[in-house]
Each structure stands twice: as structure tokens, then as C-alpha cells.
Amino acid sequence: METTTYTARILRPSDGHAITQKNPDTPILERVIARKEIWLAANADPEDYIEITEDEAKAYDEAKEAAMKAEAEKTETAE
What we know:
- By secondary structure, the protein is α+β, with helices and mostly antiparallel strands.
- The protein is 32% helix and 20% strand.
């Protein structure tokens, strides 16, 4: 039998903030905006994430919603 021990790394934002990827080139449709917490995989680096203000999080939410709408419209047009 093999036993593996795993230590969970959880990132929680400060009040009034959210957590997202640090890389500014992360595609908007792949961007995570976490207002409560992010559980990191064993190979994930906490340094790859940053804390952002709620206003910045809302701007990302709006951009993501617009991108999803544009993708849906492209799909409908292609059919």
C-alpha cells in the first residue's frame, strides 16, 4: 500500500479584495477571480497569484462577461 501526505495551500484574500493570476497575459476567459479562497494544486506556486481590489475584480468580471457573450454570438453565427 502506498500512502501520500498532502498539505493543502489555500489563498484567502483580505477583506474587500479578490485573488487572481499574476500573469497579465492570462486570457480573460481563463482568468480566475476568487473572492473567498483558492485551493492550490500540489505543483502550483502561490507567487503566481496576486490580490486585487474589488473594483479591479468587477472590471475583470465585466470583461469576462463581455468575452463570453462574444464567444456565444460567434457560436450562434457559425451554426
